[in-house]
Amino acid sequence: MPALFLKVDTSGAPEEGAPPADRIISGNPRTRTWNVEEAEGGLYAGIWEATLGKWRISYDEWEFCHILSGISVVSEDGGAAVTVKAGDSFVLRPGFKGTWEVLETTRKEYVIRL
Domain (S)-ureidoglycine aminohydrolase cupin: where (predicted)? Predict the structure, then answer.
């Protein structure tokens, strides 16, 4: 039986990646993800980090985000640009389309529900 208490940390090796090349608008953003929970029914939780750059985002899932460090600008197509920094929390709902621009390497906690 798996442990019922699961600490979220970055002591293990992350999954390294990048936004898809056809979505990158500027820079050479790189991502690191420590996915510490993957539960039945499409629930995920962990830590995500990205370096400088800007790319298009499109959400089919629901995501809660809490910024731990850095500065990013999240812009919804046809909507306002919102600067997020350490201490900020927000939700991106299914259907959100826009851009994510990392101005200073950004690290966030996330919970995703498919």
Answer: 38-110
Domain spans of the chain? 16-42+54-97
Query: Tens digit of pLDDT for each residue in 18-68?
Result: 999 999 999 999 999 999 999 999 999 999 999 999 999 999 999 999 999
Distances (CA, A) of 21 to 4, 10, 14, 16, 57: 38, 26, 20, 15, 12
* 101, burial (CB in 10 Å: exposed 0-12, middle 13-18, buried 19+): buried
Note the pTM of the prediction, 2 decimals. Answer: 0.94
d(CA 25, CA 85): 21
Residue recorded with tokens 């039986």: 1
